[in-house]
Design brief:
The protein is an alpha+beta fold. It contains seven helices and 13 strands. The chain has one domain: 4-Layer Sandwich (CNF1/YfiH-like putative cysteine hydrolases), CATH 3.60.140.10. Strand 6 and strand 7 form a beta hairpin. The protein is globular and about 55 Å long.
Length: 256
């Protein structure tokens, strides 16, 4: 499990960017696969998720995730739900202690948020589409509606695919440049003619900085390049594997 300093020092918060290590899954899902949407054995995934919850000091039923759809949609969580009843969204916020907000990822950027003064937290799934359409800003705004103050919010971007491993086509770059001409800086030339290398963590960090929150930390680990520690959708695709695991990043408010 990895942690970020700006969140570590907030006394009312526990968090962790969990790796693929330390779980019970086998084969291509080894070993801490927390994705109930994968083809892994359901009971095994539930055991892995229980380990995450227990590491953060709460009961397994208090860990919630959403059905992620690469949107800017945010859910305010007031009570835990089951996986079967989970809403479709890509971010969550809460002011309720003891509820673990979990984001699943396997190359996309998980982003955890906490107000260092107010008892409000958030978690967002920022793939390229969510980041471009404003999921991180929407999470900040949802936290403000629960009583957070923007310049007191600390955020941390977890392990995700790095620019060195994220090759994209010309239509991908065009989409970003049409949204903002300054986005050209997040693309470097690829060895493949007409293609580019996209800096997802850099782009996410810049969006958060522009939102004028308190602080932004970047874990800086590449999911694609570190096969031992992380699942990667793109790596699994390149290796012609039939499926892939998902690591989880999670945050919880400690009980008062």
């Amino acid at each position: 499990m990895l942690t970020a300093k700006p969140l570590e020092v907030i006394s009312h918060v526990r968090h962790g960017f969990f790796t693929r290590e330390g779980g019970t899954s086998k084969g291509i899902y080894a070993s801490m696969n927390c994705g109930l949407g994968s083809g892994d054995d359901r009971a095994t995934v539930q055991k892995n998720r229980a380990r995450v919850a227990q590491t953060l000091g709460v009961e397994p039923d208090n860990l919630v995730t959403v059905h992620q759809i690469h949107s800017p949609d945010v859910i305010a969580v007031t009570a835990p739900w089951t996986w079967e009843n989970a809403p479709q969204a890509d971010a969550m916020v809460t002011a309720a202690p003891g509820i673990v907000l979990g984001i699943l990822a396997a190359d996309c950027a998980p982003v955890l948020f906490a107000d260092k003064n107010a008892r409000v937290i958030g978690a967002a799934h920022a793939g390229w589409k969510g980041a471009l359409t404003g999921v991180m800003e929407a999470t900040i705004e949802a936290m403000e509606r629960l009583g957070a103050t923007r310049n007191h919010i600390e955020a941390a971007i977890g392990p995700c695919i790095s620019r060195e491993a994220y090759e994209v086509g010309p239509e991908f770059r065009t989409r970003f440049v049409e949204a903002d001409a300054a986005n050209t800086r997040w693309f470097a030339a690829s060895e493949k003619p007409g293609h580019f290398m996209f800096d997802l963590p850099g782009y996410a960090e810049a969006r958060l900085a522009a939102a004028e929150i308190g602080a932004v930390a970047v874990i800086g680990q590449c999911t694609y390049r570190d096969r031992k520690r992380f699942f990667s959708y793109r790596r699994a695709t390149h290796r012609n594997e039939p499926d892939y695991g998902r690591q989880i990043s999670a945050i919880v408010l400690k009980p008062e």
